[in-house]
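Entry type: protein chain
Record version: 2
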Amino acid sequence: MTTTGLGGAALGAFRGRFGEALSTADAALDAHGRDESGLEAARPGAVLFARTEADVVEALALAREFRVPVVPFAAGSSLEGQLIPPPGALSLDLSGMTRVLEVRPGAFQATVEPGVTYPQLNRAARTHGLFFPVDPGAEATLGGMASTNASGTAAVRYGTTRENVLALRVALMDGRVLSLGSRARKSSAGYDLRHLFLGAEGTLGVITELTVRLWPLPAARLALRCAFPDVSSAARAATAVMGASAQPERLELMDARGLRAVNRHLGLQEPEVPTLWIELAGASAGALEDVRALCEELCRDAGALDVRVARQPEELEALWRARHHAFYALKALYPGEAFLSTDLCVPLDALPDILTFTEDGLRAEGLDASVLGHVGDGNFHVLFHAPPGSADWARIDALYARLVERTLALGGTCSGEHGVGLHKRRFLRAQHGGAVELMREVKTLLDPLNLLNPGKVLPDPA
């Protein structure tokens, strides 16, 4: 179906309905034409700053009338090109929908608008001794996190966004607003349509409200910093820790390059060797000691060179600040270069295999890249870098394709948490086969004019 974009009558209609909430200012168009993917930016036709669900519904109605593509937008932290608009599109900015509508401590849940960030929700929940555990690092919004099924460092213990969304409201392209899921912790009533929209990247509908699970704040925490001679040894230790039912809160890997970048970026003095960071939590400090001792023993058995323990809140905060700044620290280490971050995930027992395959491939191609990730989930990232237009990019793209092929052969996925967007569409058919056509039928059913974030997720027809 041909779209016309925002011009002439369409732009006038949107401006007549929304007034100053619709912007065509250069600064707004530039800010909404890119994300954190590094892919080429592309300005939308206009930006609409929605404030209510009614704004969203009316914007979709006008988009349907004038055949205008719509790209939902919030924090702008997507990593796979989800937010880059096609020509003439409306960027529908939901970042102003920031109300925490309700916190129900006795039910361990909260209801929020899609522009609420997870730190904002945690500030509201903390007064009740609760927190929302999905922590992707960036100041992401709950709506964006649901749209990509984000996870992050704490998913090994608490699950991804998908496991922590109980209910949501979604505005469809045909004017309906659906309430999906329920406040109950479980349900066996009918098709689970809620999960259809979690990870759909705004291609099927626009999320306008979410009810999410909250968890009790741990009474006691500590973290182990375990240095290893190589990434493979660290991966074996991670597998052993998970197999021992230690139930870590976080289990993270960073290689020597990543530690070097973080040291320079934050002025730290961490040993610049592959390192596992293991956070444990419990009802008391004493209750953690047996688990700490077990994790230390497992890491030393796997070849750990050194194990240090952080117990004080300021130590823990500094440790996780370093981990969350790794992406930006690595980019700062190579100014002026272009970057590509992979997001692969394998079954946990295949983690040593794929990490060895990765390091062998980097050496064979003569590439410099950093490996880090949420290895308790089998989820890891390779951050490639090279000057824009360099011949290195042909080797990077070829190795990336081989990494995906190997990951899929091991029973893994081309995206553990970042989503598909523009960047990974080419891998979707290799992972899902004929199911891609069923996905396309679902998209056509819910968005027959192909106006919702067109060109994302699904590959071009074969």
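Comment: The mean pLDDT is 95.
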